[in-house]
Amino acid sequence: MTDTPTAEARPSVPMAELDDHAGGPGLVEASAAGARLTLTWEDGERAAFPLTWLRDHCACAECRHPMTRERLYMGLEVPDTPEARLEDGNLTLTWADGHVSRFDAGWLQQRRPGQARPDAVPTRRPWREDFRPVRVAHADFVAGAEGERAWLTALLRDGLVLLDDGPLADEEVSRLAGRIGPLRATNFGARFDVRSKPNPNNAAYTAIGLALHTDLPNWRHPPDIQLLYCLENDAEGGESTFVDGFAAAEALRRQEPQAFRRLAETPIDFRFQDEEHDIVLTAPLLSLDAAGNVTEVRLNNWIRDTLRLPLEVIDAWYDAYRAFWQLTQAPENRLEFALAPGQMVAFDNRRVLHGRLAFNPESGRRHLQGTYLDLDMCESRLRVLARDT
């Protein structure tokens, strides 16, 4: 094995994985049997590793690019049993072809088969009746990692977070979003203005009330995170409304399991059309992962297209749709508040339903600026910030 010049004094661990290595007990025994190597740590923990896995995870400069740390080795052959020895509590393997792999004991213990990957990204937490969104001061968000980390943690855990006391500055929403990652552009642009205007191509650009919905369910991948920054809000009415769509879906699963399955298993058409665009998608209202967990809600009554279902299932689908809609209207599950100038709300558009009460444009001005972010970039940013904790 050929080590990089700066890595001679430490085991070869992939750079991208060094940050979550927290030391730990050393190794006291390594024994090979068949196509596996069984390791024992000082604390008595034992774990077996396939030889193919160990060879695949060698992090030397021959197997990982010395600068990017991306894998170069292509593990297409089953390796022969290597010579195993322990050095300062860590593992060194010499393979039959002479290649040498070195592994840190703590790194291996964290990655023993079946062990969950540690992650700074929090688990999603459903809203309860007493849910109140976390509020982070704009000054704290822009001051450093602590405020930004608190904002991202609340957003990813709860699906909604507020930013308070920001400047009344055009494009501030874009500057804040740009700290996290690139803005997600749609047919409405990378950044959009939410205000009443002539000849609107979307109900958001009127003064009417907006029923609870998710944005752009007609896209294969709807925007993940929406940011709405308030610049003016002097009009009567226009309060923002929010509901945890995942919590409503789980309530439907408990109370009316057949209706839940109907919405999760029946694709319907969504379509947006204007002079320049015609964007169509067929997908179920509720999406589930392999374990049956709800991963996405697509609910938007304005752009729900013609219901092209077989005659015998149409009434059942409408019954399920009504049942879900009624659960989203429960007052105890609903947040309603008026955004103040300088305040920004961010929420998970594929989880949290949002809406707006009607407002009177003759009574004052109401102007919000919005943009979208990808969930991947929010999670990535939180992991980067967590490296300093």
Q: State the low-pLDDT regions, or none.
A: 1-22
Provide the residue-averaged pLDDT. Answer: 91
Query: In what order do the strands lie side by side in the largest sheet?
Result: 7-8-19-11-22-9
Pairing-aware structural class of the strands and helices? alpha+beta
Model description:
The chain has 389 residues and is an alpha+beta fold. The chain is built from nine helices and 22 strands. The chain has helices spanning 51-56, 105-110, 138-143, 145-158, 172-178, 245-255, 257-265, 311-328, 375-386, and strands at residues 27-33, 36-41, 46-50, 83-87, 90-94, 100-103, 134-137, 160-164, 191-194, 210-213, 225-233, 236-237, 240-244, 268-273, 278-283, 286-288, 294-297, 334-337, 344-348, 352-356, 359-360, 366-373. The strands form seven sheets. The chain has a six-stranded mixed β-sheet. It has a four-stranded antiparallel β-sheet with strand order 10-20-13-18. A three-stranded antiparallel β-sheet has the order 1-2-3. β5 (90-94) and β6 form a beta hairpin. α6 crosses α7. The longest helix is centred in the last third of the chain and has 18 residues, at 311-328. It is elongated, with a radius of gyration of 26 Å.
What are the defining features of this structure?
389 residues; six-stranded mixed sheet; four-stranded antiparallel sheet; 28% strand
